[in-house]
Amino acid sequence: xxxxxxxxxxxxxxxxxxxxxxxxxxxxxxxxxxxxxxxxxxxxxxxxxxxxxxxxxxxxxxxxxxxxxxxxxxxxxxxxxxxxxxxxxxxxxxxxxxxxxxxxxxxxxxxxxxxxxxxxxxxxxxxxxxxxxxxxxxxxxxxxxxxxxxxxxxxxxxxxxxxxxxxxxxxxxxxxxxxxxxxxxxxxxxxxxxxxxxxxxxxxxxxxxxxxxxxxxxxxxxxxxxxxxxxxxxxxxxxxxxxxxxxxxxxxxxxxxxxxxxxxxxxxxxxxxxxxxxxxxxxxxxxxxxxxxxxxxxxxxxxxxxxxxxxxxxxxxxxxxxxxxxxxxxxxxxxxxxxxxxxxxxxxxxxxxxxxxxxxxxxxxxxxxxxxxxxxxxxxxxxxxxxxxxxxxxxxxxxxxxxxxxxxxx
Length: 410
Fold this sequence. Notes:
nine-stranded mixed beta sheet, single chain, ten-stranded mixed beta sheet, alpha/beta
């Protein structure tokens, strides 16, 4: 028997395998009880990315698992919810679309978020999946105006604490940390102008806990740079930035495994410092690592485990020789390309710079990124896939003044 929501559009009645809500066995589950898993995709998650979709279904309970699809962030939630449900169903799940979206015609979001039947259906599922779009729509829908949790948000936490999986892509990834990017400006303006609460960042849902900051669309958009001021402003030691069509799987013990197309950057500010006398952004002694697909990281021990096909790079036999420099460190995958060369180079240091339009505002203000191998740095390579993993490279960022014009025709 399907649960009906008479105030909602018929197309969004939970008709894709929804079973009656199960009785709650964990009504009094404490906040510190065992948690479930997270699958955090960095955006642009393709339907044919079998490792990611299969992992979501597996963690939700395997074939036949009920997964609540939240199209809350989407500009066209009806289409987004339907297509996502079809993908999950093709991998063996029994998805149902949760009719909770401000852009869904005929929906009262506040009323739906506190609907006891809707909350019960989410609570009894094995997993939940948040689609991409605008992450602000998710938090606005699931939280009351005073910041308190709605009934559906409480149900999501119950699902998670019971051992279920919370998954999401793009906007659905941003909400995973306690703080999320809100307006999401480009990296360079964020470095130049700093972070403002309520404009650049806002509270997320915090499923990953208080210690890790999450960002998405990472490598393709150079967003590692905008993570740094946000992490410093909110006192995060660890930042996890996930690239497109890739996912970080966070296990109940908080260990992280990367699966999918590309990889993820891990930023560690545990040893970092800033020069407070300077008004421009700067940081010294940060650590940056690149986790390729198949790699694992354990925050509790600080241990990296490369994928099974990786071999440690031999520094006595480097593939790259001579100075290493990137003219646009914020370009598509530029930082990873430079890190990969550094770990397999006769050089101990690589440099990249970031600057804007020579005709734009503050054209003479840029930043220099210096990456340095230290005794703790490691590089790993795969001969089969020609990919690298790079761990614990020191990163320093300082403001620089550019001489204008940057160039002229000859």
